[in-house]
Amino acid sequence: MAVPVDHLTKQTPASSTLRLAFGNVLAFFILLLIGVLAFSIRLFSVIKYESVIHEFDPYFNYRVTQFLTKNGIYDFWNWFDDRTWYPLGRVIGGTVYPGLTLTAGTIWKVLQSFNIPLSVETVCVFTAPVFSAFAAWATYLLTKEVKGTGAGLTAAVLLAMVPSYISRSVAGSYDNEAVAIFALIFTFYLYVKTLNTGSLFYATLNSISYFYMVCSWGGYTFIINLIPMHVLLCIVTGRYSSRLYIAYAPLVVLGTLLAALVPVVGFNAVMTSEHFASFLVFIVIHVVALAYYIKGILSPKMFKVAATLVVSVGLVICCAVVAVLVAVVASSPTKGWSGRSLSLLDPTYASKYIPIIASVSEHQPPTWPSYFMDLNVLAFLVPAGIIACFAPLSDASSFVILYLVMSVYFSGVMVRLMLVLAPAACIMSGIALSEAFDVLTRSIKFYISNLSESLQIDAGDSVPANNVSPQNEVLKNEKKEDTLKERPSRKNKKKEKENIEKPSVKSKTEKRPLVLPVEASFFALFLTVLLGGFYVVHSVWAAAEAYSAPSIVLTSHSHDGLHVFDDFREAYAWLSHNTEVDDKVASWWDYGYQTTAMANRTVIVDNNTWNNTHIATVGTAMSSPEKAAWEIFNSLDVKYVLVVFGGLVGYPSDDINKFLWMVRIGGGVFPHIKEPDYLRDGQYRIDSQATPTMLNSLMYKLSYFRFVETDGGKGYDRVRRTEIGKKHFKLTHFEEVFTTHHWMVRIYKLKPQRNRIRGKAKKSKSAKNQNPEIGHSLSKRSTGSWLTESGWSYGFG
Amino acid sequence: MGKSPVTSKDDAQALFHSLRSAYSATPTNLKIIDLYVLFAVFTALIQVGYMAIVGSFPFNSFLSGVLSCVGTAVLAVCLRIQVNKENKEFSDLPPERAFADFVLCNLVLHLVIMNFLG
Amino acid sequence: MFKVPTLLGSDPTLKNPKTKTMAKFSIAIVFTSISLLIALTHSFSIEKPTDRRILVLLDDLALKSSHSIFFNSLQARGFELDFKLSDDPKIALQRYGQHLYDGLVLFTPTTERFGGSLDVAAILDFVDSGKDLIVAADASASDLIRNIAAECGVDFDEDPSAVVIDHGSYAVSGSEGDHTLIAADDFIQSDVLLGSTIIKAPVLFKGIGHSLNPANSLVLKVLSASPSAYSANPKSKLSTPPSLTGSSISLVSVVQARNNARVVFSGSLDLFSNKFFKSPVQKAGSSNKYAKSGNEQFVTELSKWVFHERGHLKAVNVRHHRVGETDEPAIYRINDDLQYSVEIYEWSGSSWEPYIANDVQIQFYMMSPYVLKTMSTNKKGLYHASFKVPDVYGVFQFKVEYQRLGYTSLSLAKQIPVRPFRHNEYERFIPTAFPYYGASFSTMAAFFIFSFVYLYSK
């Protein structure tokens, strides 16, 4: 009696179990390494600069986390912040997505209880890399559900390095996406797992993971619209099964309940149009389930009768319900959608109606190069992956295809959503690569086994050489294997395990294996390794050079080395040491979060941009002449005004470049500010051809006050590349109190009202007629030298 | 599909009879589950009617009440699917495991309901 | 090595008579220095706003005697007057940042330049630091005086040779006939400025007039000219209509700056002179003959006001708390009931007396007043009000803005945030929601029963 032998590799079940076990252990270690890789590739900014929080939004999250760790969760839940949006304040508990802060706070608490004294800042800085490791593991799990372990590992390593995800999760980028992407992938994994197994346990876990996603990011609406779409797709393509019902129905009920628990979402979970798709499909799936059930217990003839009856009656009810729904939705001006969602559906909506959303640089559509920058090789691996998913098409692979298509559309609308595309692209590419690698290694193994067989034929073995389970789907992949990447550390035994796991078996006894000629496969293998090297090099370069800048510290290289511009922190430190605790600082909304977090002063507007009128007030003040601006700021109890100016060093993101947005937003609420007043022939200028309104505006004056003193009278602005229009002027209602070393941040104080009101203008007997305070104000300036060497240019960007 | 009213009435009656006979063939435990589902749906309808009369002031209480009924109905249907011996896909799932999952899910549901109610 | 002096007699080294006297000496030094320190601190107390040292600058020393009644009345009230000629090179208002005087009287209408370190900027600095000023101009007022006045909001007639002429209410007297000596009785109606006794006799005035910008809220006309007055050169014929006419001409004005420094501008130096104080007055066109003009009373009362002996308020002890508690909370909640109280005192010249008024208002302000309430007083200087916090959350301010004619302006603002309800401050059980509670609990019970029935049925 013959011992059962696996015909391709001629192994016994005992040795294949050993192989299986070995494969599992290997997979475990590979996953561990992937986690370490994902963590360490994001540490460039910590190495190059320091362990500091980047950008603007993370500072707000950091401040909230500090509050949470200091005061506990109940105070955090009810926190009313009176140091921002003065004098309106902001109810933090109800307007912030708590997932990120709660996660970091919990990690900090746990570490404290183990007596590991990491500061809150360290925990916040390193949360993102840790969760990106988790996200890579979640990608492995998801892809394993779709195609198998091999594809899973490939997808995981791709996700660990994809530049798009790195850009939003470097060490220091403490923003919602850091945990949200992990939650997204994990939720999808649990959904697919429930779909594959039909277990209610995983459905429960799915709902809880969805809850975590809702806590973390506003992008949760993507999930709650994608899953219903997939369910609908399955129903329409005839793939309805009871597992689908178990996967979807509890998610809707539990998920809506859990989403309503989060204060930010609240009743929006049932009232906004973004969630209606889920309810609609909920009803549809019940109808379909009922139909299938009745079909199951009736005879076909009776079922037809039932169908006609139901259709005729049900149609009437349906129309009534739909009419009511449409009336309710149409009564709201935005049809129930929020502004940001509408701008996703209609890309031109924001620029027409909501200039604030349109002005954020992350909300602009991406350019073609950014796809290659952010996805690199994956951009042309994805179509191969789609084909691989179609053969064979399962519920899980149809889900991944739908996910990819939707995310490609949304990434085309807003560059920030490239982040949602990244996991889908990695999954698809991972599937494609593992399929290709499967073919290549099988070819090589087949060749080797043929070689050894020809040696063994002499020994009398009667093993048929061509008994192998066909892998039909490979055929199509062979045509597409031009540019494939593969991970060199993979072993052949991996494929063994995968062959055993694959459920699709249509085994025939005599079938030719689909293999390539061995020389071609060796060559293709070599090429894929090379391409993999390119991908790795690009990802590491992107992580190190392009995406590690903390943007709070700037650097530039010049002929005498590296220059570091730490002006922002210099200005915030000055503010925190030289002003009273209750003083209010007005600046453009970009710097609000940083000012409250680092300088600890009350601000008027900040990056949350929830109150358009307040922002428009500040914008109007910046665009008005000095006296009107003083009046506006005085009515808001402002003491200090902060502007960012890049003209001396060539920093392009300064307030003068953003000034037109201030005019537009201010003009949207206060009609006396008209944008054409600030443009000369439709062009925005600040040189001698600028309009008088522009030259008299507060922003111009505060940016260029005493600017001519830096280069001996010319006043050459390095960003706009011209000399400024009005060179010598005095400030009547503001006094300069601080300018940083490179003139990047300038702080002014509102002059108090004059003690006496003067009579009619007299012939000036002496030059001391002007306000004597001007002479004293300059002495408080930073005493750093601001004269730059000639010909020394700072390169930014 | 224009049928004359008489024949459609006959058909309706025949349909009704066949449905009854088919249904009475289901095992008892499934019938218990169906009763449970009906009770939940009935309670939900009562609440919706009450809200239509009184108005939706404590909306969170209304939502939690309705969703608890809908949730129990859905979960019971899931249990029924898993326990039903006619479903081939779940033939290797032990009914104890199905019931345990059901209990777990209900626990989570009721915990959330309690939180959201007040 | 400084040795702390111990008890005499206990230290064996003190048996030596020399060290004994040394010890006594050091004790005496410590004692005197301590008492000196105490004395010094008392002399600059901020608690006593009536300041004592006044610098009087004169054009001509004869003014000392010709205006002696005025000066003596000041000295009788406790002021130390330091008389100097306007071109004295040793004039200095400050030394090393310290002010040497608390008030300044300028009886120097013709001086073009002051001696020493004094000029327009120094005088304005003096006013801006909170000190008081009396300025008297006259028919030949110099540009210096005009500039000082213009900086404070008082515009003298630009024509240097113009004086106020009134053919309707001049003072009837023996000698001159050009009607430049005016009997003015158009006083401002204010008890604070001019005292509670009405000045019956008109005030004699001879000098130049000035006008005030009606939009200027810091200046007040104390003595206005009559509707028939005008400002012109008495000796030449008028070719154009005069620029200043009628009641818009102010003869004496006061300025109360934002930091509550007080300045008096008078167009006539003779207003303060002994001659005008003692002379009888009769207004043309009226039959009343007064034995004594109202100048002395007018000037005395006005000087009391200028030097803060009347109408100077201070507000202290701002307190606010919830009804029923005594501590000041750091943050209020919407719909809280709270109480606010403040104590206001008025300086009487020698002590702080409770200020009694019924028009002090408290605002609860966030970009506009949400609550505006008049405070009630207990007649001992305590003003209080209680109100309910509005239903809006945000950062509010308790604002008291009190600007009454002649009194110092009180501008108090205290910032306090107002938060919305916490998640556990709502009603616990809402009656209309009982069916929903019932339904939820019934589903739980049904689940329980169902699982029993399901598990244990055959």
Descriptive notes:
Chain C: The chain crosses the membrane at residues 25-44, 434-456. Chain C: Its main location: endoplasmic reticulum. Chain C: It is a single-pass type I membrane protein. Chain C: It is found in: Endoplasmic reticulum membrane; Membrane. Chain C: InterPro entries: DDOST_48_kDa_subunit, OST48_MD, OST48_N. The complex is a heterotrimer of chains A (797), B (118) and C (458). Helices cover 59% and strands 5% of the residues of chain A. Chain A is mainly alpha-helical and 797 residues long. Chain A has a domain at 563-755 and 774-785: Rossmann fold. In chain A, strand 8 (716-717) and strand 9 form a beta hairpin. The longest helix of chain A has 39 residues, at 418-456. Residues 461-510 and 764-797 of chain A have low confidence and may be disordered. With 118 residues, chain B is mainly α. Chain B has one domain (28-117). Chain B is built from 4 helices and no strands. Chain B has helices at residues 5-24, 28-54, 59-83, 95-117. Chain B is flat. The mean pLDDT of chain B is 83. Chain C has an 8-stranded mixed β-sheet, sandwiched between helices. Chain C has helices at 17-43, 62-66, 68-76, 120-128, 143-152, 191-194, 274-278, 295-306, 434-456; strands at residues 53-58, 80-85, 94-95, 98-99, 103-107, 132-136, 154-156, 163-166, 182-184, 186-187, 203-205, 210-212, 219-224, 229-232, 250-256, 262-266, 281-282, 289-290, 313-322, 332-333, 337-347, 352-354, 361-365, 369-374, 376-377, 382-388, 394-402, 410-419. By secondary structure, chain C is of the alpha+beta class. Chain C has 3 domains: 43-306, Rossmann fold (3-Layer(aba) Sandwich); 312-419, Immunoglobulin-like; 427-458. The termini of chain C are far apart. In chain C, strand 15 and strand 16 (262-266) form a beta hairpin. Residues 1-10 of chain C have low confidence and may be disordered. Helices cover 23% and strands 29% of the residues of chain C. Chains B and C meet through helix 2, helix 3 and helix 4 of B and helix 9 of C.
Quick one: biggest sheet of chain A? Answer: 5 strands, mixed
Q: Strand percentage of chain C, roughly?
A: 25-35%
Parts with pLDDT < 50 across at least 5 consecutive residues of chain C: 1-10
- The number of strands of chain C is 28
| Class by SSE composition of chain C | alpha+beta
What structural class do helix, strand and pairing data of chain A support? mainly alpha
Number of domains of chain C: 3
CATH topology of the domain at 563-755 and 774-785 in chain A: Rossmann fold
Top-tier CATH class of the domain at 563-755 and 774-785 in chain A: Alpha Beta
Give the neighbour order of strands across the main sheet of chain A: 6-5-7-11-10
The counted number of beta strands of chain A is: 11
* Radius of gyration of CA atoms of chain C, rounded to a whole number: 34 Å
Report the CATH architecture of the largest domain in chain C. 3-Layer(aba) Sandwich
Helix content of chain C: 10-25%
Low-confidence stretches of chain A: 461-510, 764-797
The CATH class label of the largest domain in chain C is Alpha Beta
Residue-averaged pLDDT of chain C: 84
N→C terminal distance of chain C? 105 Å
Give the strand line-up of the largest sheet of chain C.
2-1-5-6-16-15-13-10
Cofactor (chain A): Mg(2+); Mn(2+)
Subcellular location (chain A): Endoplasmic reticulum membrane
Family (chain A): Belongs to the STT3 family.
Pathway (chain A): Protein modification; protein glycosylation
